[in-house]
Amino acid sequence: MTTFSLIRLILAITFAGAVAITVLQHVNYATGRRPREFFAFLETSGWLVLSLASGIALFRLAPWLLSASTAVVGVLFVLVGALLRAPDHA
Description:
Layout: H1 3-31, H2 38-58, H3 64-84
């Protein structure tokens, strides 16, 4: 396996995981199991930004620096949102 194909595999897994987490969090908003507050929305936005960044890099739609900087912002949103949001409802 070449380095390029390994990077594409990692991007594909990141893209699929970020999309799945984003959909799951939206379902939890709709059912009321996730609090509707700023930091919870910030975490969901971070996963959405991360899925967009990995999708852009996977399909080579923009320079790598744009994808990398967008991914860093997405990870920061996820971390800040996850650390400061209220716990989910059971």
